[in-house]
Amino acid sequence: MLLGFFFPLLFQEVYFKNLSKQKQKEVMEKNGNNHKLRVCVATCNRADYSKLAPIMFGIKAEPQFFELDVVVLGSHLIDDYGNTYRMIEQDDFDIHTRLHTIVRGEDEAAMVESVGLALVKLPDVLNRLKPDIMIVHGDRFDALALATSAALMNIRILHIEGGEVSGTIDDSIRHAITKLAHYHVCCTRSAEQHLIAMCEDHDRILLAGCPSYDKLLSAKNKDYMSIIRMWLGEDVKTRDYIVALQHPVTTDIKHSIKMFELTLDALISFNKRTLVLFPNVDAGSKEMVRVMRKKGIEHHPNFRAVKHVPFDQFIQLVAHAGCMIGNSSCGVREVGAFGTPVINLGTRQTGRETGENVLHVRDADTQDKILHALQLQFGKQYPCSKIYGDGNAVPRILKFLKSIDLKEPLQKKFCFPPVKDNISQDIDHILETQSALAVDLGGTNLRVAIVSMKGEIVKKYTQLNPKTYEDRLELILKMCVEAASEAVNVNCRILGVGISTGGRVNPREGIVLHSTKLIQEWSSVDLRTPISDALHLPVWVDNDGNCAALAERKFGHGKGIENFVTLITGTGIGGGIIHQHELIHGSSFCAAELGHIVVSLDGPECLCGSQGCIEAYASGIALQREAKKLHDEDLLLVEGMSMKKEEVVSAAHLIQAAKLGNTKADSILRTAGTALGLGVVNILHTMNPSLVILSGVLASHYVNAVKDVINRQALSSVKTVDVVVSNLADPALLGAASLVLDYTTRRIY
């Protein structure tokens, strides 16, 4: 587990080594004789403070560059919402101004009046502070008032978390703030692309990741059990409680209150200890609190209802929970860093990028549906997700702030279509190329590579595959650590680890169920958990044949093809099936075992124990077997061939002999090609793909034979299929990378 926390520190160390101090000095000189940047951070509620606090700590730690003024407003100052301004004071920040801006009523009119009240009070504060730049977070109505005031008073605005998508009025507010803001810090590549599509200036966008992840990914709490017991009781165990956090949906208050009522009923029926946090100050929150009290939640023995939990303690509570339920953005963003199961209810987060840990219940209209979701999710453990950050957002943001030239014109420039097809500026290339760590477990070699989004193998490492499970896992971790460290130097951001291995694999759990005879001690092996825990990265595992198909779908002949089959012709025969653009795994993860299609009832024995399989005719092992028979009978070597005494007879010798006119060798190859062709015909009659891709070292030797068999044996309706040889140099590694790079993050229940 220590390795998991090592990587953010490693990346940060490399980052600081690469800082261009000369450039910062030049900007400061432009801004006027060591002028410190006066930064106003305005925080409205407990949620935005969790994102702004890491930036505030970073600014405070560099007084030679910055002056920090803190303005507190909104629900921070309301007792019903926990008087959360106190946690700002506990963090030792001086609060320059407290503005009471919330008009009570918790309905739509009260929200509008609150914005108006903030607009009345803020100009006086900003006139007194005269900040060079104001940092505004997110999509709350309070933040809209802040951005409007600053924009009209010619104060530069840095907007955190712009470009994201969700399912309520917050979307409109977030995008409105984007149009007012001069600079943008976004968390994901999709958010960055949205900002570019909204005509924001490429040079003023920073893809930094979420600041809260800087704290999340370094949160090694020594005594998390004391925190759990403090909030949930002495008898609670880790992974055996639920955290519930649900807010009103302002565009459909009546439905969101009904959904909250159903959620509480489901939680009562589920009968697990539950920590319920009060909703935010949006319209409808008062009615939600009434529902809690009507159901006696505050006095129920299984429930603990609280107004506020300090963020560092909240981190530990969700990190060790059996499940989180509700519609808070925290569930789809921050909780993924721990792999804790999340049930996202309703439409409030529609459009958010999510990790594998999130189960969406879009229409949470019955208690049974929510209860079933709890039964599906509770107690699971998913791979840690770093969609929203890698733990280094704050150093990037600070450098971004230092690069701001106050003498540049204040007026915004918009980049109207056509939008340039390039990456937005990343401050001296600090932002890395999105990449994957690809691992290929072969019978002989163990290979690890850094693979970019475009399929470029940036760096590759190769070692002999150890014979024992312990040595093999240790070597995988060592090679991955080395590759991840090197990724920083070659400007690559690792999104996750993809593993291609022989044998039958359960990709949902990341477990090798049982392996081929070529890889020893490799059955019932959980690959995902130890690697994910050590690297603090999500991990995907699949069979090597499936990975080859994924490689073709993303980088090869299969790109854009709806239905195709990949056949690997190497030491063994394997493959993968893409049907309607999706990989087929089968009910027991045994789909596409194409090498074990039987083409003769009395054919040679196969390694699987059957007879007449394609693999028994056409694999490298089968050809080597036939070559040895010919060699033992002195029928292999022909004029132009020679072998050393110690040289092992291989399939290559058989192919060479056939090329030099050895009729027996040629007959064996023709039989092998026919067997493979018959197998392909069976596939055509079963799956009806539009394309068959032959991959592996023997593919070019078989392609013509396969086409001939199709012409002779296949039904006329499938004879038009294209049969091609793969043009990918390394399908196993590219396929493993595709597991990461093409992973679909959104699941719907």
Automatic annotation (TrEMBL):
Gene3D superfamilies per UniProt: 3.30.420.40, Glycogen Phosphorylase B (3.40.50.2000)
Keyword Phosphoprotein: yes
GO molecular function, one term: N-acylmannosamine kinase activity
Stored Pfam families: Epimerase_2, ROK
Main location: cytoplasm
Active site annotation, chain numbering: 544
Enzyme Commission number(s) of this protein: 2.7.1.60, 3.2.1.183
Residue sites binding Zn(2+) per the record: 596, 606, 608, 613
UniProt-listed GO biological process terms: UDP-N-acetylglucosamine metabolic process
Domain UDP-N-acetylglucosamine 2-epimerase as annotated: residue spans: 65-402
Family: In the N-terminal section; belongs to the UDP-N-acetylglucosamine 2-epimerase family. In the C-terminal section; belongs to the ROK (NagC/XylR) family.
Quaternary assembly: Homodimer. Homotetramer. Homohexamer. The hexameric form exhibits both enzyme activities, whereas the dimeric form only catalyzes the phosphorylation of N-acyl-D-mannosamine.
Protein's name in the database: Bifunctional UDP-N-acetylglucosamine 2-epimerase/N-acetylmannosamine kinase
